[in-house]
Amino acid sequence: MLDFLATRRREPELMDQPGLDEHQHRQALKGLARINRWSRSAAIFWPSLRRAALKAQSSGSELRVLDLACGGGDVTVALGLRAQRSGLPVKLTGADISSTALDVAREQAVRIGASVEFMQLNILDEPLPQDFDAVICSLFLHHLDDVDAVQVMKKMAAATRQLVLINDLIRSRVGYAAAMFGTQLLTRSHVVHVDGPLSVAGAFTVSEAKAMADAAGLQGARIETHWPWRFLLSWSRS
Question: pTM of the full predicted structure?
Fold first, then answer.
């Protein structure tokens, strides 16, 4: 691992700035959606959600899923389409603090014809709704400091009836190089070009993520690694 990747280095990302120009924001969300498709972000979640949905279907109920910090909603929409095509009873709701991101998410859902909903929510400062069977988040954890990351995990576990799923980057040399070059190939967004490598430098290792899950009380949480240099943390309520 490069020396500067030996420890976590969080630096402000352009996407997190409140004064980000709307056009640049939308362009960045479009670029991130392309990266998420290439890295199969929805596919990382789907096997766990499919198993939970089949269980719900067998009992005549619907699996309600909350996608936190959904951004432009591309993962939420992709999961909604998978559920629709499979005929499984899944109801997806995406939540984000950004009104611009939510506008993009709703526009995408209408354009594609995905039956998903979106709501505005400040995940750090507001309580999470309590009527969801699964609470998930994708590529959000690395935006937080260690204390907030643990708190978000605690809130996710307290809010869910069944399942917590967290998909995020793994801090590594290869992942950093992939972010450097992959963002240049996959999008013209300057914001994504800057934030991609910063995200990897600010990400956690698998062992760090597991330690935070333990600190948050997610005993028995499992972590799987996925291409490209991602992890999926899974926790089920007993």
Answer: 0.96
